[in-house]
Input
Amino acid sequence: MVEATEPQYNEYAIEEFLVRSEPYYRPVGDEMELFTAAYEQHIPVLLKGPTGCGKTRFVEYMAWKLGRPLTVAKDSTAQPLNEGEVRVPLVTIACHEDLTASDLVGRYLLDANGTRWIDGPMTRAVKTGAILYLDEVVEARKDTTVLIHPLTDHRRILPIEKTGSIVEADDRFLLCISYNPHYQSALKDLKHSTRQRFISVEFDYPPADVEAEIVQNESGCTSDQAEALAKLGEKVRNLREHGLQEGASTRLLIYAGRLMSQGIKPRRACQVAIVWTLTDEAELQRSVEEVVTSIFE
Amino acid sequence: MTSNSNNDIESSLSQFPPAVLEAFQEASEAMDSAFTEEEFNLWAKEGVSIAGQTVRSWESAVEYYKVGSHVARALAFPSFMQWARCGTYLAQDSPALAVAFFKASPLIVGNLRPQYIPRWAGLGRSLYKGTWKSSTLSAKFFEVSPDLIRSLPFWDVEVFASLIESLSYKSYDVSMECLVLGRDVLPAMGREREAFLSMCRALTDSNWREVKTCLELAPRALQQIDEGQTGRFLKLGERLAKTGLRETAKFLADGTSTLAQIPQTSQTHILDLAEGLLATSPDAVAPFLKSLDIVLNRITMNQLDTWYQHGVEMLKENPDSGIAFFKIESTTSESMLETLSSSLELERVKGVVKLYCSALSGSTIDVLDTQELVNKNIGWVDEDTASTDGTKVFLPPIVDHYPRKDENFAWFKVVATHQVGHLEFGSFNFSFEKPAACFEEQRRSELELNQSERQAALLREMGDDAPDISDQAHAYTDIGRFLNLFEDRKLAFDLFTVLEDCRLDYRIKMEYPGIRTASERVQIEARSGRPEIQQLPLQQALVELLIQMSLEQFTDLMVPTEYKDESVMLSQILHTLRDVRANVEDTTEAALRAYEIIHRIENKEEEEDQWQPEDLDDPGDFSEEQYESMLDKLNAGQQDGEDGEGGEGNPYESPEPVDYRGDFKPEMVQLLTKLQSDKGESGEGEALSQEQLEQMLEDSAELELDAEQGDISNSTSMFAQNIMKEAGVPPPDSESGEGYGPLLHDDDQGGELEAREPKAYLYDEWDFRADDYKPRWCIVKEKVLDEGESVFYNESIKNFSSLLNHVKRQFELIMPETFRKTYRLVDGEDIDLNAAIEAWADVRMNVPPDEKIYWRRNKIERDVSVVFLLDMSASTAEAIDEGRNTVDDRDAPDDPVEYMVWLRRRREGLVRRHYKRIIDLEKESTTLLIQALESIGDTYGIYGFSGYGRENVEFYVIKDIEESFNEKIKRRIDKITPLHATRMGSAVRHAITKLENQPSTRKILFLISDGRPQDRGYSREGVEKEYAVHDTHMALQEAKRKDITPFCLTVDKSGHDYLKQMCGDMSYEVLDDIWALPERLPMLYRKLTM
Ligand SMILES: Nc1ncnc2c1ncn2[C@@H]1O[C@H](COP(=O)(O)OP(=O)(O)OP(=O)(O)O)[C@@H](O)[C@H]1O
Ligand SMILES: [Mg+2]
Output
């Protein structure tokens, strides 16, 4: 019996997207202190690290965490906030080759009465004092650097050429970008003048015991399974120097764990979540598979 | 011409039937002009003589006159007359022969040397035996002669004729048929004709009926096998025929069709085998060849040898069963195939095993065949057991323990996992100073202390006479230092081995539950081969007890009643290691304790009733106090013993090895590693001399330097030298830098250099160990490359014309973009008027307008300078796998004529590729690139580099960056050849200098190499390798600092390992498929500069 259910989704204006409930994040090093310090000091942050190692999760977590300082909120907009809560909205933009400056800043739209200016996500983040997270920033077009530069030095301004105006960033605004140095497509590289406007926090896959904890927590598999998965992750990553482009990410390990917690046999779960996802090359596949069959019964 | 003589002739001829005269008269007109009078007369008279030979020879004369003018055109007169006389003789025997002879002549004389004509006539004559049938055969021979002589060497015609002759003794019909067949078949044969004829020849003696079938089969059959092999194959057939094999034709058919299934490269080997078989039993050859088809479907070429060998053995014992074996009509044969086909060759799974081991250990592990380790002669001798030397895992070349392939693979996995376990769980990382995790007290330090105190005391007693033992006491490796603590080094080492293996097996079982089943199986099998404990003298029995427990046998173990407590204690010690926390230091602690117990027990045999079965699966925890008191008790016992007779125990002997655990040589591994790392820190006096090394090897319990090798000290010193070589330490008396061109002076020594010649440049080199530059360390000598021919350049363009067009098109696309406006964009420089008006109109009509109302111009202008650096090191001479087809069919022309031309060119290209070297591809790629670059107008320079030693870094100008493209450059490309070594860092630095002065906004340094940086004192192995990689990395870094984008492209398949380190976060690409280079290079460049 299937009952028609109401569609359930929430839609937010981007500056109103707050991380409301505490995301699970397991700190690995001193990244939290560093980020907090940078946030207080208005220093932009560059997160370096391979895919699926927790960068996005970290930023989410920090947005949530920084939203509950001890000082009282000065904010007066409509949304009711919990006691002691400030707005630290999180605006995430995944960068890609066709992302242009005006996708970020905004553009004129046509409507019945002529043209109308619409702020882009970056402008909105700057205005509301959000954490703006540009994922895989090297993928974006070069002209976006024109925007990033004035925002990330002492000026903290966003020039909007089209409207001929300049927006000063809200005091709480922070720009955070991510970058995966492993990508071979890195025929592109961040320019030094851009790079040197950020502090760089290195991320990598966590050590096996920590990773096991994360996997167990996120996937709900047994602790033995989580430990085995973490071990698998470690071993598979050793193949990075042998033709595997990327090691198994924490994300993939979690996927495998989640399948296991649904009762899928471990070897099979690893096969679909890890072996086949990682590579199409037969010899590598077989090798990873052999590691899987050694670790899992 | 006197009509007189003419009349004479005519009247002589008129006595014959009128046809003769008619023929003469018809011919004489033509002959009159060709011959002098005298010659004419001779010609005419010979006809008369022919006609007069026998009753019917007038017919021959008619033919003689008819063909005369044709023959005369080809032959000088003396030869002509010789020819005529041949006919006369033939006519004498049989006019029909002469007729056939004359008839064939016009077609023969042009193709046969005149002096052979009589021999040819003789051949036909030899077939004639005076009978009617023989004359028909002979006439037939003349009839087919023109075809034969046109396409066969005369020699072969003679052989063929004699073949026909011998056949004719058997049957005229058959020989007639063969004659005709031969005409059809032989001309088409190549070099194999001779062998074929000789085979047929052999057949006529033994089995003449088969000749015809062979002739019939030959053309199709021989086509199937490699041309190079037909000769050998036929020779084989001939030898078989000689032995009287009845079915040569069948052999021909079966054999060739079998061989056709086999790759060309293996055909030789098969023929080797077949020939070998011929020697043993000719009857087996044909069945062998016939079965091959089936056999090779089941087993590999290598395995075939084993199967074959077995069959040969059987043949020797009993020919019938041997033949049944090769026919696969015997159970032995069948079951052998079964086993072989389930066995697994390392070669087939090497790649996977290698990756598996690398994944587990976290470092790059090479997987090699045990044979290769044995060949190094550095102490490993057993070809059948697995081992590791710390960076490589050695596995037996083949596994056939089980009837199924997957089971055999599982065996490989268990064995490989155990070997890698040594690396993963740190067997070789033993450090004397590091604490153990499970044993509370660190007794090894205590023991060492005691020992040195005792020694010191001894020295004090001896006073001045004391030998200087400080040197001796100092062990080179930590394992060595540990083993030095024991009087009986062998016992100590054996204990360490079994306990360490026990720790590993337990650990592996816990960490890798997936292979538990397979390893348990292997363990059970290992157990079944163990000796019975109670059969051994006590010390050995206790070691064996430990081994069996390490193989997970804990119940029903025989222990000596007298030493039951000791046995339990040993079991406790062993159980302590069965813990995931246990490390290699624990193993040494355990070995030490086990040693102290066992060593105190006399190694004597015990009566059978002195043993009792015991379960030791849960012996309780080990306690240091109990251990102490047990030692006290044993000491007391020993004292008593010494008072009595004492010392009659046997000398201790090492236990049977456990096969699957392989050869464990921790001391050797630590030694190799240490030698390698010490090599880097030159001049600290730590390094080991060869004598010291030899001393160590003699002490080591890991080596069996026994008599077999001859003189012990000799083999020790050989080992020592080999080991040093393996570790990359130059043996003291060898020439350094061999194979790397002329030596000017030693590399690491000396200091700064000076550049004295013009066009010589000095560069620093980065020394990562010192974390600093070595100042003015290398001299780069710039030379303009010699000029060769421009053919190579032009040919390459021709060969790659389709690719080139494609590349050019791609490049041209870059250009227009600089000018072209792009319309209808959501955003841009300005409003696109057309689109805006449309949008406005839409708005007015209440239709949703299109938002794309902007245009934009790509403002980026190309301003690129690039330097290409080509690797010209000796290794680029390496030939590349043959036979890859890279030219694609993309633009095969439609027009049939053009298509043929295209096809031919393509084929030629392929043929040439067989011999291609890496450098050739580099050259071709350069050619393509130049074409492409010229089309977009970037500034570019092309240089090659090589050299030997730091004072001779050669930097060849192919196209200087300022130079514009010209004919000379085409010719220089021709001269790009593999030279010496590769000192990459300095070459890169010089390229930077070239680029630095360019005004362009975008500068690129494009490095194309085949392998790692390599030069004398620069990266052959070990630390030097690291040195080179670091220096190159630094040079690339310098480029970056100067706003030059470096890019490395390598065609070295294993390039990933070091490239990553060399390029750091800079871009690089490893080209897996070198054939892709010509295509990939321009594309990469394009991408890089967009
Ligand atoms: N330290 C951590 N604490 C909690 N969860 C983590 C942690 N690290 C990784 N994860 C888990 O891994 C998943 C992937 O992480 P995330 O999406 O943040 O990766 P990412 O680094 O942003 O990857 P990408 O570069 O592909 O965007 C998360 O959904 C989370 O479940
Ligand atoms: Mg992410």
